[in-house]
Fold this protein.
Amino acid sequence: MNMEDLKKGIGEIKSHGLKPIERQEILNQILGAPIPSPYGHFPKFLTGRWLAIISRRRFAYVLALILIIVLAGSTSIYAAENSLPGDIFYPIKVNLTEKIRDRLATTPKAKAEWATIKVGRRIQEATKLAAQGKLDETKSQEIEKLLTAHTESFNSVIEALATSTAAELHEISNAEIEFEAIITANKQVLKKVAEQVDKRQFEEIDSFKFPKRLKDTKDNHKDPENLDFENEREIIKIRIEKVKETIRQAEQEKTEKDNEILNNLKKEIIKNSREKIERAEKILDDIENAREKDSNKKVIESLHESSRTAAEADFATEAISKIKKVEQSEKLKDRNEN
Amino acid sequence: MIDDEKKKQFTEFYNREADALFRFVSFRVAIREQVLDIVQESFTKFWLVFMENKPINNHRAFLFTIARNQIIDWYRKIKPASLNEMMEENSNHYFPEPIDQKESDWLKLSAEAHLVTEALKKLPSKYREAVHLRLIEDLKPQEIAEIIGIATNAVSVRINRGINELRKLLGISKNHTNL
């Protein structure tokens, strides 16, 4: 080979290259490639084949992920709603779901009603725990702390209404009655439950404090001039009938012979509720006679007292259904064990 | 949005260098599909750096360096090189041999070109790369030094000795000095 041949050979090698179609295809792919994120890269476990698998069926994976989140979230929230102090889901109940509902209550009336419901929930939890013999010092303290917070939030709603109009005060007055009644009625229930379950726990339950008393309800917020007396009286009567019916049903139900604690408790509640309801009825009858001679203000005070007493009896009888649930769950437990 | 001016600059560069890079890779990798993959991957990596406005000293040298590393990576994947082999060759400057010569038949060469190619393949590996880049791709010694990762003087020595070896292999007299 001579020099010319070498140059020719080199020249020919230089003439080799990509086919036009290959050249264009590669360029298109380079310029059409996705631009990497300037904010960083995928974690290593998401690169390579895992990312390829996910990106191929992206929609299915996204849907599955959403379903998992929704199902896990709703299951947790559902479980939390039925949880008691000491349960793993209880913090979700008081710190998440109840906080969300706090935000949803925007009007003073809604806020007051929600605070009342929360107090009812705490008392219900304490009742269940006491009936199961699980109400220890830590749980009592936790419930007491929450009850204090709910009472304070209720008080703040009432105090904020000090300068409100008569119509607004009228709106809130029912919530106030309910709140006071639920405390009065259930405090007794709590005491009785604890007394029956364990003497030591009685002391602890008794220490439940409701530090801020409500504003004096004797200064009734109902506007004497605009009060619909007949309507108010009808509402109280309906409530009295409801409590009477509950008492009647509770008396007819067969009681479990084995569970003396719960039986005694039920009897005590029935007795207590009956006394209250009789008192409420009597006040209501007296009002009829007093309307002629007494001032409007006095009549309203009596109406208010009757309403409150009926409400207390109503809340007290609610405890009967809770006791019934405890009885049923214990029965189921026994059957499973056998 | 990608700057249109950047796209234009890159396309010009691509059209200028694509064939050279293809030849460079095809002398080391025999399977055509793999050659095309490496060419595309090398240009893609170059494009990403170019797009981010990162400083590039010499565009050609940078592109060939990327391609060279791609080839080494590919060989490591399919034929794990032993540590001893790499140490002997000096790991920084190690460059693999084509694994399947038969498949390089796609290069339809004339008799002269075939002889030159065969002679290049017979050159010791440390000369072969420098000679190929200088004679076939017309890269400057500085650019070759940047690609291989050695000093420019060392590259000049390799080119000189490599060309002398090539002459011997092709039976060209030393009187011909104008190469």
Q: What stands out?
A: Residues 332 and 338 of chain A are 10 Å apart (CA to CA). The radius of gyration of chain A is 35 Å. The longest helix of chain A spans residues 296-337. Chain A touches chain B through 25 residues (CB under 8 Å).
